[in-house]
Amino acid sequence: MTKKILILFTLFLTFLGNAQTNQKVSIDQLVLNFIKELQSQKIDSICVYESYCVGYIMTYDEPLNNDKETCIDDLINDPVYIFWKEKGKTFLTKINYCWEFSKIDISKDNFWNLYFSDKKIIQNEKVKPYESETFVNSKKVKHTIIVDHSCHQNFRFLVKGKTVEKRFDDFALQEKDDNSEGFNINYHHNIDLKSKLIIDTLGNIVKNNTFQKIKQR
Between vectors from CA 42 to CA 162 and to CA 33, what angle results, nearest 5°? Predict the structure, then answer.
């Protein structure tokens, strides 16, 4: 199949022209509504996971719109994933603005144990930016380096009315960037964080599960 490359602007135009897409809905509102629904059922252990990139090119395989029920969903806004504990079991679903997805029963849910066993440590952990050190006039100088285009992973635990959130920029997790001078002096600090282990665990769970569409929004 022919593979087409779309830049974000082109995707946006295509999205506007798609009659099947509900343009008034937003990912943030859908996530908020879903969380409120869970909380109304007295569910008090919820985890929200996001993985997205900024300023990148997306690809798809034709035919994309193979029927009237298809809309461009993940190509416009990256989906959000929600985990929750219900009657001793962990469930997972996917949120985007085009489809409602069924919930998945997750058996490998050790991320809860990782979180609860080190909750106080995780609350105080800081993800440090990419920094390098150079010498200027025999003095050590620290430089903070940022990039416009990077990928990100975030999690948010909502447990018994309290929220703990961590945000990871993939660039800050690199040991050495080809376009930067010097190594990232915060590399080992960042990859050794307790919260980094959790974000990796959540990402692996999402990648290893298939989400079934229930209906279009």
Answer: 75
Question: Is 89:195 a contact under the CB 8 Å cutoff?
Answer: no
pLDDT tens, position by position, 125-168: 999 999 998 877 778 888 898 888 889 999 999 999 999 999 99
Query: For the whole model, what pTM was predicted?
Result: 0.81
Which domain range does residue 182 map to?
Answer: 3-216
DSSP assignment of the chain equals --EEEE-HHHHHHHHHH-TTS-TT--HHHHHHHHHHHHHHTT--EEEEEEEEESS--EEEESPS--STT----TTTS--EEEEEEETTEEEEEEE-SSEEE--EEES--THHHHHHHTHHHHHH--PPPEEEEEEETTEEEEEEE--SS-EEEEEEEEETTEEEEEEEEGGGG-S--TTSSS--TTHHHHHT-HHHHHHHHHHHHHHT--PPEEEE-
Q: How many distinct structural domains can be found in the chain?
A: 1
Contacts of 156 (CB under 8 A, 6+ apart): 47, 48, 163, 164, 165
What per-residue string of b and e applies to 14-47 under the rule 16 or more CB within 10 Å gives b? bbeeeeebeeeeebeebbeebbeebeeeebebbb
